[in-house]
Amino acid sequence: MSRDMPKDPLGKPMWYGRRRTHKLRPGRQRLVDDLLPQLMIADPEADAPVVFSPGFGPPQRELRLEIGFGAGEHLSGEAAAHPDIDYIGCEPFINGVAALLADVEQLDLRNVRLFDDDVRLLIDRLPEASVSVIYILFPDPWPKARHNRRRIFQYETLDALARVARDDAVLMFASDHMDYVAWALAEAKRHPDWSWTARKPADWRVPPAGWVPTRYEAKAVRKGDKPAYLSFRRRSREL
Ligand SMILES: C[S@@+](CC[C@H](N)C(=O)[O-])C[C@H]1O[C@@H](n2cnc3c(N)ncnc32)[C@H](O)[C@@H]1O
């Protein structure tokens, strides 16, 4: 993927976000050193296809993917509520990864695997038609027009996700940034594999039942903003 997306001199997708802020507390550092390697779904430096370990993922178990999980509230909430479903969380920000690891340990979650790098280094390595739900929640809005190409929700990502999405898979996008919401609708509309599922305003103004809010979402709601929740369905390959 990423033919038009900015690349670094090594040909990897250019990363503009933060990887770390404050130094991790010793307990969190221990989780990063000891637990993270056990849960990593793939080595970011290697280029090999992802092979699921026995008992994780398809074909036996449903697989969901959360891209840019931040501190992981939504991911750990979902994984705890659905122990029969497996989750891959992807987040290059190590303080956020450490926060999620603390939840994984505390809640004894067995159905979570992680990728602590740019999702664009992972998607092409996942098996075709393997993922049933993909979350992109409150992604960085990159509001300046000259930065819009940095947005993770764009045609190229939709292309790559369409390959790994099962027929009828759901791609859930949420944002409080209305320009990004309009952009997401426009990008999905021109993509042949994804269709917006909304039939009435409540379908995009209200989160789905059982929704676990994210940190950015809670912040936006506290400010009085009204996020939008867009749900796209992957068209069947047969049609
Ligand atoms: C604005 S934060 C939102 C975090 C969380 N989803 C929430 O709602 O609280 C966006 C997150 O996406 C992550 N992110 C941005 N680009 C990404 C990429 N290409 N792959 C994986 N994560 C990414 C960032 O590191 C950041 O933590």
Describe this entry's structure for a reader:
This protein is an alpha/beta fold and 239 residues long. The chain has one domain: Rossmann fold, CATH 3.40.50.150. 30% of the residues lie in helices and 18% in strands. It is built from seven helices and seven strands. It has a seven-stranded mixed beta sheet, with helices on both faces. Strand 1, helix 2 and strand 2 form a beta-alpha-beta unit. It is globular and about 45 Å long. The chain starts with 25 loop residues before the first helix and ends in a 5-residue tail after the last strand. The model has no long low-confidence stretch (mean pLDDT 93).
Topology (SSEs and partners):
Elements lengths: L25 H14 L22 E6 L5 H9 L3 E6 L3 H14 L4 E4 L15 E7 L17 H10 E11 L2 H12 L4 E3 L5 H4 L9 H8 L5 E7 L5
Parallel strand pairs: 1-2, 1-4, 2-3, 4-5
Antiparallel strand pairs: 5-7, 6-7
Strands side by side in the biggest sheet: 3-2-1-4-5-7-6
Residue ranges: pLDDT <50 for 5 or more in a row? none
Number of helices: 7
CATH topology: Rossmann fold
Structural domain count: 1
Instruction: Give the names of the bound compounds.
Output: S-adenosylmethionine
Tell me the helix content: 25-40%
Count of DSSP E strands? 7
Strand content: 15-25%
> How would you sum up the global shape?
globular
Please identify which CATH superfamily we are dealing with.
Vaccinia Virus protein VP39
CATH class: Alpha Beta
Report the sheet with the most strands, covering strand number, pairing sense and barrel closure: 7 strands, mixed
Q: Which class do the helix and strand fractions yield?
A: alpha/beta
